[in-house]
Amino acid sequence: MMIVKKLKTMMGTYRGQVNKNNKPHGKGVYVFSKKSKYEGMFKNGNIHGKGFFIYSNGSKHVGEFKSNFADGKGIRYLKNGKVLKGIWKKGELLHKNK
Question: Which pTM value belongs to this model?
């Protein structure tokens, strides 16, 4: 059974499931102090799994994440209206889908 907690850190506030070490693990929401926000899955304290990230500049990324980076299938909606859809690796677009 996962425990749901609210944690405050130097980088922001997390609310969601935690593991036995009191680290984000499972489904949760992290609001960063710089007004960015991630909602989705966590693994041992890291953003990991499916979710969405809203950046402080207004851009949004929806898809798969691994070790705190967009990694796998995903779509990034840029503030200027441009949409980048494809396969991501460590936050970088590798293969663009049309």
Answer: 0.90
